[in-house]
UniProtKB/TrEMBL annotation:
Family note: Belongs to the transferase hexapeptide repeat family. LpxD subfamily.
Residue span, UDP-3-O-[3-hydroxymyristoyl] glucosamine N-acyltransferase non-repeat region domain: 22-87
Name of this chain's protein: UDP-3-O-acylglucosamine N-acyltransferase
GO molecular function list: N-acyltransferase activity; UDP-3-O-[(3R)-3-hydroxyacyl]-glucosamine N-acyltransferase activity
Record key words, sorted: Acyltransferase, Lipid A biosynthesis, Lipid biosynthesis, Lipid metabolism, Repeat, Transferase
């Protein structure tokens, strides 16, 4: 895509400092970019690279100092602007494929306009798909499933019966939505299965990474609210509520009936116990274990979790434990000798 700096500034709502008629056609890093490329400075620690940058234009923050002669577009968030440009540059017009002859769509399923149902995909009885929904090969949509417009369901994803997915969602390969929650009760001889009769509800603009699993509620719903993004291989158990715009990084596991507020961030491999609440805007460091509720806005880490700064100090002390132990042992030996005297 070739675009002038003037058009770029207009697209991004930025302030151009440079020739409006100059055109760029590529996007590269600060060190690799040439005169026909756009680059960006998202992290201030890389600002010294601007001195030798040869890019046709660089996206920078409003207050960033730049070398004389370097064309820049000043924006509020250079990283977001970069993502917006890259999205526009790589966008391809949608071409509906219809229903492939080797796909199976049950007679009473309802498809919206311009859907694409690929080979070996299955759409169950009573399912209802919005306009321009794409179902890739091997994907399974069970009976009664609802899918909103412009949602893409990638290969081998499985959506169990009666679950719902909103509009503009992306469901990556291998995702399982609506499998039974892990519910059993011991009757003295065996583990008696508790029927899981609820559903999974996924709101608009959600993206689920490959291999993510979301269990159906025992009753009611497991609810993934608008704008939630999960990394690959995240597990959300039955009855959980994941608040709007929360981010769950790879291998997060959330036990049943836990509730996350809006904008919560869980780092990789965070484990969350059941029936707890994590407040709006809270952040949990990677590898942490959350066994009690976390207040809104808290930043915690560790196992069990504690304020992040305290955890950093604690972690530093752990490395010194052998040294501290030796010093304590020496003190004990010395005190013992003094008492014998």
């Amino acid at each position: 895509m070739k675009i002038s700096l003037g058009q770029l500034a207009l697209l991004l709502g930025g302030a151009l400092e440079g020739p409006a008629e100059r055109e760029v056609s590529g996007i590269k890093g600060l060190e690799q970019a040439g005169s026909e490329d756009l680059s960006f400075l998202a992290n201030p620690k890389y600002a010294p690279l601007l001195e030798s940058c040869r890019a046709g234009v660089v996206l920078v923050s409003r207050g960033q100092k730049v070398p004389e002669g370097l064309a820049v577009i000043r924006v509020d968030n250079p990283y977001l602007a970069y993502a917006q440009v890259l999205t526009k540059a790589t966008a391809k017009p949608y071409e509906p494929l219809g229903v492939h002859p080797k796909a199976v769509v049950e007679p009473d399923a309802v498809l919206g306009a311009d859907c694409s149902i690929h080979a070996l995909a299955y759409v169950g009885a009573g399912a209802k798909l919005g306009d321009r929904v794409v179902v890739h090969p091997g994907a399974y949509l069970g009976p009664g499933v609802r899918v909103g417009s412009d949602t893409v369901i990638h290969a081998n994803a499985a959506v169990y019966h009666d679950c719902s997915i909103g509009s503009r969602c992306v469901i990556h390969g291998g995702v399982v939505i609506g499998a039974d929650g892990y519910g059993f009760v011991f009757d003295g001889e065996r583990h008696f299965k508790i029927p899981q009769i609820g559903i999974v509800q996924i709101d608009d603009d959600v993206e689920l990474g490959a291999g993510t699993t979301i269990d159906r509620a025992a009753n009611g719903r497991t609810w993934i609210q608008r704008g939630v993004k999960t990394d690959d291989q995240v597990h959300i158990a039955h009855g959980c509520v994941i608040g709007e715009n929360s981010l769950l990084v790879a291998q997060v596991g959330i036990s049943g009936s836990s509730t996350l507020g809006k904008g919560v961030v869980l780092g990789g491999k965070v484990g969350v116990a059941g029936h707890i609440t994590i407040g709006d805007g809270a952040m949990v460091g990677g590898g942490s274990g959350v066994a009690q509720s976390v207040e809104a806005g808290e930043v915690v880490s560790g196992y069990p979790v504690m304020p992040h700064r305290l955890w950093l100090r604690t972690r530093g002390l752990v490395k010194r434990l052998p040294e501290i132990f030796s010093r304590v042992k020496a003190l004990e030996d010395r005190l013992g000798r003094d008492e014998e005297k």
